[in-house]
C-alpha cells in the first residue's frame, strides 16, 4: 500500500462455499485493516507463514544495542483495527478512526497552494527515457526540445517538471553548469509562458560529503561502521544522516540556496523508500530509527522548504496517514514495471489513493510511458487530483503518438479541475477479488457531501460488459463522459457545468433549480472560436447531444453548460 508502510488488509472465505454459485460474493467475509496508530523506532514488516500473517516490528537491538540494558525501553507500536465491507472500505475506516481519535488531522491548505496542486502537469522523465537522456547525457538541448515539443502539441499542461539529472551531483542542489549553462534562463522562459515550475530531487543522496561541508562520519553507516552506498551507473552515492545537527545545518543551507536560485512551485521528492532498513543502518540519533527515519528526515526537509516558500507543493508516493503535514499531493508513479498495463495499474492505485482525499491529500496521475494508455489514466485521475503526463512527443515504447484527439481530451479534463484538497471519492462498478486487486469503472467526487464531479464509463473496465453511465437520478448518459460543476454547488443545482464527451450520445441532466434554459458553449481544440446553442429545459431536464467532433470537423475539448 505504498512507501512508507503503514497498514495491511485481509479477508477470508470458506473453501467449502466459495466455489458454489455466486459463492465468492455470498461467503466472502468482511475485510479488516490493521494499521499503525503511531510510528515505531523499528521497521514494520509483514511475516506470512503456513497461511497466517502477522505484523512484526524489527528493532535489531542485536546490531545497535539501543534497546538493551537498564530501561525503560519502548518496544513495538500501537495498532488500530478497522473493519469494512471490502479492502477499500476497511482502509477508509482506518483513516477515519485515526482522525476521530485525534491521532491525525485533515490537512488544510491555503487557496494559493491548492491552486497549484490542481494544475495539470507535464514531467520530462518519459521523454528523457524515450530519447535516452536519463543519466549524464541529459542536457540543455534535450530539455529545450522536450519543452518545445510540449508547446507544439498544444497540451494545456500548466506545470513543467524537470525530472532527474538536472543536478550536477547528488548532495548540493545545484544544476550542472556544463550540461545546462542557461538553466535558470530556461526556467524563466517556462514561467514567462504562464507556467509553474517543478523540480525533481532525491534529497538524501550525496556523492561527496565534502561538497556539503561534511565528512563520511555524517553519512549513514552499517553495523561495522562502513558508510552505506548505493550504485547508480558507474558511480555510487551515500545517504546523509539528517539526525545529526551538523548535517541538518548543512542541508538547510542547501535547501535555502535551492529555493533562492530556482523558486520551484513543486518539489517532486523521490526514492524515500531506498533509505536502508535497520538490518543495514541506523541514524546516529536512534530515536529516529525504523519507520520514524523517513518521517524525521522529511520533517527537516519540508520545514526548510517552507521557510522559503510556505506554499511550495511537495509531492511523493505515500499512502501513510502520518505524513499529512509534510506531503501535499500523492503521486501514482512510477508505472515502469507495468508495461502494457499502465492504465489498469493506475486505476488500481487510484482506487486506493483516492481515499486520501478525505484527509486532504489529492492524487496526481501521470501514468505510464505509452500514449495509448493515457486517455484511461486521465479519465480515472480527474476525480482525485491533477492530470499529468510522462509522454514523449518523439515516439514512446509502443511508438504511439500524442494525437490531436488525445490532446483535446486532456485539455477538456484539465478545465474541469477542482481546487479543494478535501473530498470524498466513491468508486462505481468495482471489483477487488483475486490478483487484479481493486478496480473501478466509474467515479463520483463529493465535496461537502454533495456530488461535484462524475467520470462515467459505459463499459466495465475489466470485462468490457455494458454498464449504466448514471448517477443518483441526476445524470444519465449513453456515452462515456466526464461532467463537473464549475463552482461549489452540486451538479444538479449549479448554474454552470463543464462536460467532456468521449463518444457520440446523449447526456440527460436533471437540473434542480428555477432556471428554464441552458446555453451550451462548445470549446474546440486549437481554436479560440466557440459555438453556442440554446436549449429549453423540459420539467428541469436537459437532453444534451454529445459529440467528439463538430460538423465542421473541429475537435471538442469541452462543453460549457450555463443554466439561466
In terms of topology, how is this protein built?
Layout: E1 7-10, H1 23-26, E2 31-36, E3 43-49, E4 52-58, H2 61-64, E5 79-84, H3 87-100, H4 111-117, E6 121-123, H5 125-130, H6 140-153, E7 159-162, H7 183-192, E8 196-201, E9 205-206, E10 229-232, E11 235-239, H8 245-262, E12 266-269, H9 292-308, E13 313-316, E14 329-331, H10 342-353, E15 363-364, H11 374-381, H12 404-414, E16 424-431, E17 439-447, E18 450-456, E19 469-471, E20 475-477, E21 481-485, E22 496-501, E23 505-510, E24 517-524, E25 527-536, E26 541-546, E27 556-563
Parallel strand pairs: 6-7, 7-8, 8-12, 12-13, 13-14, 14-15
Antiparallel strand pairs: 1-2, 2-5, 3-4, 9-11, 10-11, 16-17, 17-18, 18-21, 19-20, 20-23, 21-22, 22-27, 23-26, 24-25, 24-27
Helix pairs in contact: 8-9, 10-11, 11-12
Using brief descriptors, characterize the structure shown.
single chain, TIM Barrel, 3 domains, 26% strand
Amino acid at each position: 500500500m505504498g512507501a512508507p508502510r503503514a497498514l495491511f488488509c485481509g479477508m477470508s472465505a470458506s473453501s467449502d462455499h466459495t466455489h458454489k454459485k455466486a459463492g465468492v460474493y455470498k461467503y466472502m467475509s468482511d475485510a479488516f485493516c490493521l494499521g499503525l496508530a503511531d510510528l515505531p523506532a523499528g521497521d514494520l514488516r509483514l511475516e506470512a507463514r503456513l497461511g497466517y500473517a502477522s505484523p512484526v516490528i524489527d528493532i535489531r537491538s542485536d546490531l545497535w544495542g539501543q534497546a538493551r540494558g537498564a530501561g525503560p525501553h519502548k518496544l513495538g507500536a500501537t495498532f488500530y483495527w478497522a473493519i469494512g465491507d471490502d479492502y477499500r472500505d476497511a482502509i477508509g475506516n482506518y483513516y477515519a478512526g485515526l482522525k476521530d481519535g485525534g491521532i491525525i488531522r485533515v490537512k488544510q491548505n491555503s487557496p494559493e497552494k491548492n491552486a497549484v496542486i490542481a494544475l495539470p502537469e507535464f514531467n520530462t522523465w518519459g521523454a528523457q527515457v524515450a530519447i535516452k537522456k536519463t543519466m549524464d547525457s541529459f542536457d540543455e538541448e534535450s530539455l529545450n526540445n522536450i519543452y518545445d515539443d510540449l508547446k507544439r502539441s498544444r497540451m494545456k499542461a500548466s506545470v513543467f517538471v524537470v525530472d532527474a539529472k538536472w543536478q550536477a551531483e547528488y548532495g548540493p542542489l545545484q544544476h550542472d553548469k556544463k550540461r545546462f549553462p542557461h538553466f535558470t534562463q530556461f526556467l524563466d522562459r517556462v514561467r514567462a509562458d504562464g507556467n509553474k515550475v517543478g523540480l525533481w530531487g532525491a534529497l538524501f543522496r550525496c556523492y561527496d560529503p565534502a561538497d556539503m561541508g561534511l565528512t563520511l562520519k555524517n553519512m549513514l553507516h552499517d553495523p561495522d561502521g562502513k558508510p552505506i552506498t548505493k550504485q547508480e551507473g558507474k558511480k555510487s552515492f551515500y545517504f546523509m544522516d539528517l539526525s545529526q545537527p551538523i548535517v541538518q545545518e548543512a542541508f538547510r543551507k542547501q535547501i535555502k540556496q535551492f529555493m533562492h536560485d530556482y523558486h520551484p512551485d513543486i518539489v517532486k521528492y523521490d526514492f524515500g523508500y531506498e533509505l536502508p532498513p535497520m538490518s543495514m543502518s541506523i541514524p546516529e540519533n536512534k530515536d529516529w530509527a525504523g519507520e520514524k527515519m523517513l518521517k524525521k528526515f522529511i520533517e527537516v526537509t519540508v520545514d526548510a522548504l517552507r521557510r522559503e516558500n510556505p506554499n511550495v507543493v511537495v509531492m511523493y508516493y505515500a499512502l501513510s496517514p502520518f505524513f499529512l503535514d509534510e506531503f501535499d499531493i500523492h503521486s501514482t508513479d512510477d508505472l515502469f514495471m507495468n508495461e502494457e498495463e499502465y492504465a489498469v495499474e493506475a486505476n488500481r492505485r487510484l482506487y486506493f489513493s483516492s481515499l486520501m482525499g478525505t484527509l486532504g491529500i489529492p492524487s496526481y496521475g501521470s501514468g505510464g510511458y505509452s500514449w495509448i494508455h493515457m486517455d484511461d489514466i486521465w479519465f480515472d485521475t480527474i476525480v482525485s487530483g491533477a492530470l499529468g503526463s510522462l509522454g514523449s512527443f518523439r515516439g514512446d515504447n509502443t511508438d504511439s503518438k500524442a494525437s490531436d484527439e488525445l490532446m483535446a481530451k486532456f485539455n477538456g479534463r484539465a478545465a474541469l479541475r477542482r481546487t479543494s484538497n478535501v473530498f470524498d471519492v466513491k468508486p462505481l462498478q468495482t471489483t477487488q477479488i483475486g490478483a487484479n486487486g481493486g478496480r473501478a469503472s466509474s467515479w463520483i467526487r463529493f465535496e461537502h457531501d454533495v456530488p461535484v464531479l462524475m467520470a462515467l464509463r459505459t463499459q466495465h473496465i475489466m470485462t468490457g460488459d455494458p454498464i449504466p453511465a448514471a448517477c443518483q437520478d441526476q445524470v444519465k448518459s449513453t456515452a462515456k463522459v466526464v461532467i463537473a460543476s464549475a463552482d461549489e454547488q452540486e451538479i444538479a443545482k449549479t448554474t454552470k457545468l463543464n462536460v467532456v464527451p468521449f463518444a457520440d450520445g446523449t447526456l440527460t441532466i436533471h437540473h434542480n433549480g428555477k432556471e428554464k434554459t441552458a446555453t451550451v458553449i462548445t470549446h474546440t481544440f486549437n481554436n479560440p472560436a466557440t459555438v453556442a446553442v440554446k436549449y429549453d429545459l423540459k420539467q428541469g431536464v436537459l437532453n444534451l447531444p454529445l459529440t467528439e467532433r463538430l460538423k465542421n470537423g473541429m475537435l471538442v475539448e469541452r462543453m460549457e453548460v450555463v443554466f439561466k
